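Researcher:
Attend to token order:
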Amino acid sequence: MAGAPWRHLFPAHEGRSPRLGLLKVVFVVLASLCAWYLGYLLAELIPDAPLSSAAYSIRSIGESPVLKAPVPKRQKCDHWTPCPSDTYAYRLLSGGGRNKYAKICFEDNLLMGEQLGNVARGINIAIVNYVTGNVTATRCFDMYEGDNSGPMTKFIQSAPPKSLLFMVTYDDGSTRLNNDAKNAIEALGSKEIRNMKFRSSWVFIAAKGLELPSKIQREKINHSDAKNNRYSGWPAEIQIEGCIPKDPS
């Protein structure tokens, strides 16, 4: 300590304070340049995005991705579940109300419906070749006016062997339905044709020259009831759908 009595007045580190200050200044300048450059790059990468979108994108980095359920695949004839590949899909819908027409769908093809212009008041029938799956004939028979029971009976009886017959009503299907026509439909397995009343909603699937599986729903009926009608003077529409095994040959 001799010869340097003034050293105790100035601690050793104070001699380096100007250098530390300079380093701080350089660091601040470099940090500012880096921040400016990062902002410039961000503006170049998303020039049209608003600042709010950019800020959201930055905040979303590292967040867990949102998993979305896939859109359900549409099935043939709007079934909820698909039919096996070795079966035919079908869906029968009766009319309901003045403006709700009957529909017959087979293998996702609309055989009869308002869009095709081939459905009308009465009983609507489509005949399909069971072996090929192709429609062979479609006709509608007015059962409120005219004598159409005879032509309908002949149409049903003319279906060739190994045919599928689909029947649906729109409006009234019973007023002019005679006994011969009822017998022809009953011979195909109908249990409800003799219960038909004015404006009853009715759907029926039959087969000629082959046996349908007992587990499939083949027929359904809904009668007009002033207290329970969904529409004024009209019962609610009804439907049946299912899968018919294809010809194994």
About this structure: The CA atoms of residues 104 and 112 lie 5 Å apart.
